[in-house]
Amino acid sequence: MKFRLSKNSIRFRLSQEDIDILDREGFVENSIPLSQISSTLFKYSLIATKSKDLSSCFLNNHFRLFIPEDLIGEWINTDKVGFETTIEMAGGNPVNILIEKDFHFFKPGNKDND
Prior knowledge:
This protein is an alpha/beta fold. It has one domain: Gyrase A, domain 2. It contains 2 helices and 8 strands, in the order ββαββββαββ. The N and C termini lie close together (11 Å).
């Protein structure tokens, strides 16, 4: 799963394997070390929820995006490539969230596959 930050937007691109895990387990998670002086990891996850609203949480170096089960099911089980929404964060700051299927765009030799 790729995680990209840019100004006021967050983009997730999931491989077929990531999508299979999300479908089977109800969540998919990745982490990356960001420090040479500590073993602290930055984690990010997508989590299916029974809630009707998409929401997020950042706690203990872990960004969690909670997505309604119905929305995940529709996205996984159709040809729909992605979906996006805007979440209003603390302080009234809107952040655009984009979630995409990466494998639909992957073509051997395409240098734009990031």
